[in-house]
Write a structure and sequence with these properties.
The protein is α/β, with parallel strands linked by helices and 608 residues long. It folds into three domains: 242 residues, Aminohydrolase, N-terminal nucleophile (Ntn) domain (Glutamine Phosphoribosylpyrophosphate, subunit 1, domain 1); 193 residues, Glucose-6-phosphate isomerase like protein, domain 1 (Rossmann fold, 3-Layer(aba) Sandwich); 150 residues, Glucose-6-phosphate isomerase like protein, domain 1 (Rossmann fold, 3-Layer(aba) Sandwich), CATH 3.40.50.10490. Helix content is 34%, strand content 22%. The strands form five sheets. Strands 3-2-4-1-10-9-11-14 form an eight-stranded antiparallel beta sheet, with helices on one face. It has a six-stranded antiparallel beta sheet with strand order 5-6-7-8-12-13, with helices on one face. The protein binds fructose -6-phosphate (F6R). The site of fructose -6-phosphate has 15 residues, from helix 9 and helix 17.
Length: 608
């Protein structure tokens, strides 16, 4: 979704801001702009479409001089994606320019109030009220003015502000939308995402809700919501810029698929000591755990699918009822939560609006919370009682791959760890399951190596207009993710079904030539799955069978076969998803789709 960058230093700001905006392109956007303060005169350039249009219009930034400025990529919410609605927005006299991520919920009433005071609105955005409020309250003290302005705003904002009267300064403020300050030498920055900063500095400060920062080339001052100075810690980003670059791969998605053995290893290995799983980060007493009578897992999209995998593993090992729900539903239902409930939220970005709201709701109702998160310092990581980082590194492709598999790996580990602490499994079972988990990275590699024919399958099936994924139990959980991967990047209609449920209606859609991907890795359900395969074959479907290496009986029914390494049944979802990610990737490539930035999608969904 929208991205923000800000810079103040000695160099020309515009090329630096454009470079930062390019690093945020992966988040999804439909227009972009910059505003630069050149010795007290603000120049603004904004265009709809790609950042390259902005680069052309500004001669890669060289056409605008000034050493402090702000930039933005906009993913339209209020108003069409056109030049006028693009950010920055300026006050009528050109004194202020602002960029904004988030949604101002009371913008309609503020707009009316400002119009009555004579302010003219050019755009349809909620953001424009902010710049007019700044102008309205301005009395020469900009810090005070910004504080007064944000106190009128309801909703969420990450805000970047420049003012003609402060040629060297950039200001930043946040509420429910991420904003990170970059600490440089003789120059300072802010951005909504650390990816935009890391090529210039790895020293960052995570701004908290309600805080305001004033940045000059040599200084950063931070204040709380009533203007008191706040001392903040400088953190060091743990990864290099190469991690956020393609490294020779054609697409980020392919690179991230191939990175999975290493990413899952990073999530697992530091947490295994003397053959036992140890989550040092988990601050839950044995007494509390023994009293837990229900576990909720809540998340969105692929993270929700990881939660489905987690449900099967946790339920099987803990014997506690597990409920998995979409965060967007969980937050508005009336979940039966009390101090005996444990709520697990899962999020790659840590900034998904619905997941944040579900987490807050769970805390409000008295549950203890665990967040499984990738992005360090994100809102969810800061809000949850316990944080288990997935350590996947930056994920740039919009469609998640290593984000998902590392979430699943952490959930598997959590299942074994909690089962052991609750004495639900013997020491031998714990050792065996831990050993199995340690094998996941090599199983992922094997799942890649076993399937060099995936591009051929993609060529064969890419013209199907509708695809079904069926499976049972853990296979079904993997179907959900396999199906989402295919539809989101190839735009082919695709549905995941619990195999036994197909004949209760949906089988009406199976017709000659329809592709059905049948997942049959759970050994005890293999024969049942073969019956389902027969049902769809009898109606003319083409079948790709996915099963464990060596289970050759699949050949009698499937048109094509994908083998994955044999794994403990509970843990098969990780290696099983790999060929499905690759299949989605190659089908999308066959169909000429924009794989890393699928249409209409954003990397981190920060609005409801
Ligand atoms: C799909 C995908 C999305 C995200 C979802 C939640 O490939 O990436 O479905 O999984 O938007 O995002 P996070 O995990 O950042 O909360």
């Amino acid at each position: 979704m929208c991205g923000i960058v800000g810079f103040t230093g000695r160099d020309n700001a515009a090329p630096i801001l454009l470079d930062g905006l390019k690093k945020l392109e992966y988040r999804g956007y439909d227009s972009a702009g910059v505003a630069i303060n050149g010795d007290g005169v603000i120049t603004m350039v904004k265009v709809s479409g790609k950042i390259n249009n902005l680069c052309e219009k500004t001669e890669n930034g060289a056409a605008i001089s000034g050493s402090a400025g702000i930039g933005h990529t906009r993913w339209a919410t209020h108003g069409a994606p056109n030049d006028i609605n693009a950010h920055p927005h300026m006050s009528m006299d050109g004194k202020f320019a602002i960029v904004h991520n988030g949604i101002i919920e009371n913008y309609a009433e503020l707009r009316l109030e400002l119009q009555e005071s004579g302010y003219e609105f050019l755009s349809e955005t909620d953001t424009e009220v902010i710049v007019h409020l700044l102008d309205h309250y301005y009395d020469g003290d900009l810090k005070e003015t910004i504080m007064k302005t944000v106190s009128r705003l309801e909703g969420s904002y990450a805000l970047g502000v420049i003012c003609a009267d402060f040629p060297d300064a950039v200001f930043a403020a946040r509420q429910n939308s991420p904003l990170i300050l970059g600490v440089g030498v003789g120059e300072n920055y802010f951005a909504s995402d650390v990816t935009a900063l890391v090529s210039r500095t790895k020293n960052v400060i995570y701004l908290d809700d309600g805080e305001l920062a004033e940045l000059s080339p040599s200084n950063i001052s931070i204040f709380d919501c009533i203007g008191r100075p706040v001392q903040k810690q400088i953190s060091r980003v743990a990864w290099d810029i190469e991690a956020a670059e393609k490294g020779g791969y054609e697409h980020f998605m392919l690179k991230e698929i191939m990175e999975q053995p290493r990413a899952v290893k990073a999530a697992i290995e530091p947490r295994v000591r003397s053959g036992k799983i140890a989550f040092d980060e988990l601050d839950l007493t044995d007494e509390y755990l023994t009293n837990v009578d229900r576990i909720y897992i809540t998340a969105c999209g692929s993270a929700f699918h990881a939660g489905q995998v987690g449900k099967y593993a946790l339920e099987a090992l803990l014997g506690v009822p597990i409920e998995v729900d979409f965060a967007s539903e969980f937050r508005y239902r009336d979940p039966i939560i009390n101090e005996r409930s444990l709520v697990i939220v899962i999020s790659q970005s840590g900034e998904t609006a619905d997941t944040i709201a579900a987490l807050n709701e769970a805390k409000r109702r008295g549950a203890k919370t665990i967040a499984i998160v990738n992005v360090v310092g994100s809102t969810i990581a800061k809000t949850a009682d316990n944080v288990l980082y997935t350590w996947a590194g930056p994920e740039i492709a919009v469609a998640t791959t290593k984000g998902y598999t590392t979430q699943v790996a952490v959930l598997y580990m959590l299942s074994v760890c909690l089962a052991s602490r609750l004495r639900r499994i013997s020491a031998e079972t714990e050792a065996r399951l831990t050993e199995e988990i340690l094998m996941l990275p090599s199983q992922i590699q094997r799942a890649i190596d076993l399937n060099p024919h995936i591009p051929y399958l993609a060529k064969r099936y890419h013209e199907n207009s509708s695809v079904f994924f069926i499976g049972r139990n853990m296979d079904y959980a993997a179907c959900l993710e396999g199906s989402l991967k295919l539809k989101e990047i190839s735009y082919i209609h695709s549905e995941a079904y619990a195999a036994g449920e197909l004949k209760h209606g949906t089988i009406a859609l199976i017709e000659p030539g329809r592709l059905v991907v049948c997942l049959a890795c759970c050994e005890r359900l293999f024969d049942k799955m073969m019956s389902n395969v027969k049902e769809v074959k009898a109606r003319g479907a083409k079948v790709i069978g996915v099963t464990a290496e060596g289970r050759k009986r699949i050949f009698s029914e499937a048109d094509d076969v994908i083998f994955v390494p044999t794994a403990e049944e509970l843990f098969c979802a990780v290696s099983e998803i790999i060929p499905l990610q690759l299949f989605a990737y190659h089908v999308a490539k066959e169909n000429g789709c924009d794989i890393d930035k699928p249409k209409n999608l954003a990397k981190s969904v920060t609005v409801e």
